[in-house]
Amino acid sequence: MDRLDEFEDIIGYHFQNRDLLFEALSHSSFANELKHRRRSNERLEFLGDSVLSIVVSDFIFENYTDIPEGELTKIRATLVCENALFRFGSKINLGDYIMLGHGEELAGGRTRPSIIADAFEAVIAAIYLDGGMEPAKAHILRFMPDDVMSEVTKEYSDYKTVLQEIVQKNPEERIEYRLVGESGPDHNKVFTVEVLLNSNVIGNGSGHSKKSAEQLAAREALRLMGWKK
Fold first, then answer.
1. Active-site annotation holder among 71, 121, 194, 220
2. Do the Cβ atoms of 105 and 115 come closer than 8 Å?
């Protein structure tokens, strides 16, 4: 219980129903060792995923008013993917508080991104069930980066390189990026870029800088080519 107290202090939320927190931190390997006397966090993870998606969707919808739906979807994907949730969980040392079975402990489960990401979603659900949407929202928003678009750019930072490497396998083919639109006020401009292969448009993207728009255009081109990260 001291560990649960410590974790509550870290996240800044104290549970009325402590069983919810215990469940959120219980990996399936731990529940299995207890012969299912305790439930694992898998059901909470399912609910937490939905709560997270709603809060993040609302956050980017309200704060990025000039970005079209397709780009909003990409931003949300950047903020709710396993890599992002692993980073968020690491900020609160979540791995130290997850209850693991003996075998998973020995296998390094405490630092495994998938386990930490799943537990992060489960904690969100536990807060939501215990206190409602407002404390769950407050918990999620503390992890949102100050500059979301820079996070998007970092996530997509290698797409132009990958696309170029693919195209260079055929020396006669040429990649070109073309700015096709600008919108919004000077302090919050949105640039739209097309990527062309031999004068044919193969992708487009929009972002708060030409660089990020190019990366997103390259990503779309790669997706249409069937390339997966």
1. 121
2. no
